[in-house]
């Protein structure tokens, strides 16, 4: 699997959201850099914690912004967020097991699918509603 490089076609038009998407991309690329091998458990644990933090903060910020801007597909977008958060929780729950290689592969696939399908396609749909929004700096 190859790295994904950020470019402006991925932008949703809100700097703080773009920065958070870039952070997710960095997590994904960092996971690829460390390889699909039995990883250092501490490294994998830190990555899962970072991903959980990303989910909590980023989704709240993004949803609040879409609500303020009356995004018409907000409910479907929230449902997609809840699905992803649930998948992250499942991976976190699986962390107690012995198969860190499989966990790492599952995490890579989840992040790849999320980045390609959600951020590049689904998030792009709300861009016209939020682009240039200066008030996205904090989640409500």
Ends apart, CA distance between termini: 37 Å
Mean pLDDT: 84
- Overall 3D shape: globular
Spell out the CATH superfamily: Hemerythrin-like
CATH second-level architecture: Up-down Bundle
Structural class: mainly alpha
CATH topology: Four Helix Bundle (Hemerythrin (Met), subunit A)
Give the % helix. over 70%
Task: Tell me about this structure.
The chain has helices spanning 15-34, 41-68, 74-94, 100-130. The longest helix has 31 residues, at 100-130. The termini are far apart. The chain has one domain: Four Helix Bundle (Hemerythrin (Met), subunit A) (Up-down Bundle), CATH 1.20.120. The chain is mainly α and 140 residues long. It is built from four helices and no strands.
């Amino acid at each position: 699997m190859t790295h994904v490089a950020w470019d402006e076609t991925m932008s949703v038009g809100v700097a703080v959201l773009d920065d958070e998407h870039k952070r997710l991309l960095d997590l994904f690329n960092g996971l690829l850099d460390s390889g699909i091998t039995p990883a250092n458990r501490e490294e994998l644990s830190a990555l899962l914690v970072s991903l959980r933090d990303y989910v909590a903060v980023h989704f709240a910020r993004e949803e609040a912004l879409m609500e303020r801007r009356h995004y018409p597909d907000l409910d479907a977008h929230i449902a997609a967020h809840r699905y992803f958060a649930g998948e992250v929780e499942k991976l976190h729950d699986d962390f107690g097991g012995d198969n860190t290689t499989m966990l790492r592969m599952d995490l890579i696939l989840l992040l790849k699918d999320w980045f390609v399908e959600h951020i590049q396609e689904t998030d792009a749909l709300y861009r016209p509603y939020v682009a240039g929004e200066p008030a996205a700096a904090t989640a409500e």
